[in-house]
Amino acid sequence: MTMTDGLGSRSWAVPGGGIPFPSQPDEPELTGADVLCVLNTGDEPAELRLTVYYADQDPVGPYRISVGARRIRHVRFNDLIDPEAIRLGRPFGWVAESQVPVVVQMTRQVTRIPGALALCSVIAFAGS
Amino acid sequence: MTMTDGLGSRSWAVPGGGIPFPSQPDEPELTGADVLCVLNTGDEPAELRLTVYYADQDPVGPYRISVGARRIRHVRFNDLIDPEAIRLGRPFGWVAESQVPVVVQMTRQVTRIPGALALCSVIAFAGS
Amino acid sequence: MTMTDGLGSRSWAVPGGGIPFPSQPDEPELTGADVLCVLNTGDEPAELRLTVYYADQDPVGPYRISVGARRIRHVRFNDLIDPEAIRLGRPFGWVAESQVPVVVQMTRQVTRIPGALALCSVIAFAGS
Amino acid sequence: MTMTDGLGSRSWAVPGGGIPFPSQPDEPELTGADVLCVLNTGDEPAELRLTVYYADQDPVGPYRISVGARRIRHVRFNDLIDPEAIRLGRPFGWVAESQVPVVVQMTRQVTRIPGALALCSVIAFAGS
Fold first, then answer.
1. Complex ipTM > 0.90
2. Interchain proximity C120–A116, CB inside 8 Å
3. CA–CA separation, B123 vs C13, rounded Å?
4. Is there a contact between C37 and D16 if contact means CB atoms under 8 Å apart?
5. Chain B hits for D120, Cβ within 8 Å
6. Looking at the partner chain, which of C8, C70, C119 has a beta carbon nearest the beta carbon of D13?
7. What is the C-alpha to C-alpha distance for residues C59 and C26, in angstroms, rounded to an integer?
8. What is the pLDDT of residues A19-76, one digit of tens each?
9. φ, ψ for residue B4, nearest 5 deg
10. Residue of chain D with shortest Cα separation from A117
11. N or C: which end of chain A has fewer CB within 10 A?
C-alpha cells in the first residue's frame, strides 16, 4: 500500500485573527468566534502545529491539532487552551504547519450587536 | 473545429462548509445555504465530481454536477441528495474535480437570527 | 520614457455573481449591488473587456470598462447597460480581460432584509 | 546568527478599499473601518510602504507602517494621516510593499445601519 499525498500545502497563514468580543451569551452556537477549518484529503493523519502571533509579545505555540486521513476538522480559536488560552478581543495572526498537505480556511462569526449577525471567511495564504 | 480549454483548474477545495441551521422558514430565497458556484468558460461541458468530507466518517460522493460549455451553475448544497442529503448544521468540507478547467467559488447565506442576514464567500483553493 | 507594467494579471474570473434583489429603495448607497473593483498600478490605461456568463444562455459581452494609469475604478454591475442590462436577482459569473496587468476584486452588498446589511468580497481568480 | 525570511510576499494589492460612512458614532469599536492586517513571521522588522490609489487623482503615499519581527499589526485606514488622511466614503485601492516577505489581509466592518453589522475580508493579492 502506498500513501497518497492530499490536496494543498504544508503551511498556511492568516494575519487578521481576533476572537470577537463581546458576543451573545445565551446561545453557544451564536458565540462570536474565529474558526480554523482544515481539510485533509490524504491517506495519512495531519498533525498541525499552530503558532499564534501578537502585536506586542513573542509568538505562542505550538497548539497541536490532529486531522484524520480523509477528514475535516473545524476548531474554534476560543477553544484552544494549550499552551495558553487566547484573550478575547485581542488582535492576532497565525501560521499553521502540517507534515502533509492540507487546505486551511478561517471563518469568523460576530454577534456583538444583539439581533445582528456578521460573517467573513478567507482561504488562508498558502506558503510553500 | 478545435475545443479550447477554459479558464481555471481541474480541482478545487473548501475546508469550511456547513449548511446554516436553523434559518428563516417562510421565504425560500432566504433559506440559509452554502452555494457552490461554477464557471465553465470552455467549449466543452464540465462534468464535476464533488466529494464531501466529514469530521467523523468517511467521505461521501461523488455528487455529479454538469455545467454546460460557456455556462455557470450555482448549486445549493441543501439540494444535493444523491448519493445522500447533507445534514443541516453539520460541519463538512469538499473537493470538486472536473475533467476540464473551471473556476469554483463558495458563498454562504445565514439567516438564523430573525431580521439579520450574513454572507461570506471564498474562491475555492485551486489544486493542480 | 518607458511604460512599466503594473501589478497583477490580464484575466480574472468570478463564478458567483448576482445583483441582490429586492433591496432598500430609499437610499441609493444602500442598494443591493455586486461591485467590480479594478486597480491599475501601471503607466498605461487598462481597457477591460467584461464577459457575463449565465446558466441558461450564451455569454453576453464585451462590456467595456476603462481604468486610467495609476487609478482604481469601482463599477456596480447594476450600472452596466451596454450591450445589455443585467437582470436583478439572476445568477451569473464573469471574466474580465485587460491588455495590461490589473488586480480585480468583487464586493457584494445585500440589503434585502430591512434593517440588516450583509457584505462579502473576494479577490477574483487570476488567470494567465 | 542568520536572518531567516518569513512567510509570504513583498508586494500586496487590494482594489476594493473604502472607509464605510456613516457609522455608529457612540462606540469606537463599532466604527466602520477598513483594517490592514500584516503578519511578519521573519526575524527582521518589516518596513511597509503603502500607496493609496484613487479613481480621479494621482496616488498618495507612501504611508509607512512598521511591523516587528515575529509580530502582527492591524491598522485601521481611518487612522492613517501621514502624508494625508483618507476621506470617508471615498473609493480607493492600495498596494503595500515590504523589504521582507509578509502576509497581508484586509477586513472591513460596516455599521452604517443602526443595529446591523456587516463584515468582509480578503487575503490581499500577492505580487512578486
1. yes
2. no
3. 10
4. yes
5. 120
6. C8
7. 32
8. 988 887 667 788 999 999 999 999 999 999 999 999 999 999 999 999 999 999 999 9
9. -110, 135
10. D117
11. N
Q: Which three cell numbers stand for residue B52?
A: 464531501
CA distance A2 to chain B (A): 19
Helices (H), C22-74: none
Yes or no: say if B96 and B103 are a contact pair by the CB < 8 Å rule: no
Q: Write out pLDDT tens, residues B27-70.
A: 778 899 999 999 999 999 999 999 999 999 999 999 999 999 99
- Residue D128: CB partners within 8 Å, gap ≥ 6? D9, D10, D11
Euclidean distance between the first and the last CA atom of chain A, given in angstroms as a whole number: 27
Find out whether the peptide bond into C22 is cis, omega within 30 degrees of 0.
yes
Residue to test with chain B: of C9, C11, C14, most B Cβ within 10 A? C14
For the record, the C-alpha cell of A34 comes out as 474565529
D89 burial type by CB count under 10 A (0-12 exposed, 13-18 middle, 19+ buried)? middle
Which chain D positions have a beta carbon within 8 Å of C105's beta carbon? 14-16, 122, 125
Determine which of B120, B121, B128 to mutate to test the interface with A (most A C-beta atoms within 10 Å).
Answer: B120
- To the nearest whole angstrom, how far is the Cα of B108 from the nearest Cα of chain A? 9
Distance CA D105, CA B64 (A): 34
A30: Cα within 13 Å, side-chain hemisphere = 22
CA nearest to B56 within chain A: A71
Cis bond leading into B62, ω under 30°?
yes
Separation of alpha carbons B86 and B74, rounded Å: 17
3-state DSSP helix/strand/coil % of chain C, to nearest 5: 5, 50, 45
